[in-house]
Design brief:
The protein is of the alpha/beta class. It has helices at residues 42-60, 76-95, 105-113, 120-131, 140-154, 171-193, and strands spanning 2-7, 12-20, 26-35, 64-68, 100-103. Helices cover 50% and strands 17% of the residues.
Length: 196
C-alpha cells in the first residue's frame, strides 16, 4: 500500500510518500515540498499548490492520502492558508478516487514516537529511524508529511475516530485505541510528576 502524506501550507506544502508492506514494514519512496510564491495573489498560490499536488498524485498513484487535520491557531491568516491548502489536497485526491484520511499532529506524533507532545527534532529522528534514512528529512514540512504517511500506515483504519461508537470497532482497532489512550495518560502522569 502506497500512502502519500501531506503537511498542508500555502507557502510550503510538505509531501511524503511511503510504502506499507507486509507486517506493516515501511519503506521510504519520496519526500519533497510543493511551494508557492508569497508575492503572488492567493488564487494563483492555491493553483500552484494544487498543480504540484496533482503532479505528485499522478506520479506515485497512492492508495491513500493522509493529510494533517487543520486546527485553530492564533494567527487567522496562517490557519486560513493551511486550511485552503488542505482543501486543495483533498480535492486533488477526490478527483482521482483516492481515499483521504485526516490525522491531527498529536496522532502523528503519538504514532511515530509514542508521545503526542514530542518536539519536532524527536519526530524527525524517529521518521528517519523508521524509514531507515541516513539523514533527517528536511525541511520540517517534509518530515511532517512523512510522519503523517507513517501515522496512517501504523494506525488501523477507523480506529475510534471522534464521534464513532465503540461497538463498530474490531478487536484490533479497540486494542489500538486503548493503547493510544494509555500512552497519552502515561505521558500526562510523567508531565505531572515533573511539575509541567
Amino acid at each position: 500500500m502506497i500512502i502519500l502524506g501531506v503537511d498542508p501550507g500555502l507557502t510550503r506544502c510538505g509531501v511524503g510518500v511511503v510504502e506499507a508492506g507486509a507486517y506493516r514494514r515501511l519503506s521510504f519512496i519520496h519526500v519533497d515540498v510543493v511551494r508557492s510564491d508569497p508575492h503572488t495573489s492567493q488564487d494563483l498560490r492555491l493553483k500552484m499548490i494544487y498543480d504540484g499536488l496533482c503532479a505528485k498524485l499522478d506520479r506515485f498513484i497512492p492508495d491513500a492520502v493522509s493529510i494533517e487535520r487543520v486546527f485553530a491557531q492564533d494567527n487567522r491568516n496562517t490557519v486560513l492558508g493551511t486550511a485552503q491548502a488542505a482543501g486543495m489536497a483533498m480535492l486533488a485526491a477526490a478527483q482521482r478516487g483516492i481515499p483521504v484520511a485526516l490525522h491531527t499532529p498529536t496522532e502523528a506524533k503519538l504514532a511515530i514516537t509514542g508521545n503526542g507532545h514530542a518536539q519536532k527534532p524527536q519526530v524527525e529522528r524517529m521518521v528517519a529511524r523508521i524509514l531507515g534514512l541516513n539523514t533527517l528529512p528536511k525541511p520540517a514540512d517534509a518530515a511532517d508529511a512523512l510522519a503523517l504517511a507513517i501515522c496512517h500506515a501504523l494506525r488501523p483504519a477507523g480506529a475510534l475516530q471522534g464521534g464513532e461508537r465503540e461497538e463498530h470497532l474490531t478487536e484490533a482497532q479497540r486494542q489500538w485505541a486503548e493503547a493510544a489512550q494509555r500512552a497519552v495518560k502515561a505521558q500526562h502522569r510523567k508531565n505531572v510528576d515533573r511539575g509541567m
